[in-house]
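note to self — DONT lose this again. spent like an hour looking for the file last time. sequence + predicted structure for the chain T wanted, 60 res
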Amino acid sequence: MTYLNERTQHLPGPARSGAGEWSTAPGGDADLIRWAAAQGQALSKLQIFSTMAKQVNEQQ
């Protein structure tokens, strides 16, 4: 999980143009896909952790 946290901290957020739309610059789509994938992985890890915490609380 540490690797995931370090990896997501180095990924840029989604780039936006002045009009508030997604950037269409070369490489912008690839960066957006990597950013979204990292967010999805982080959410999955958080859901697993939350489920485990609920189970531990129920056992106590």
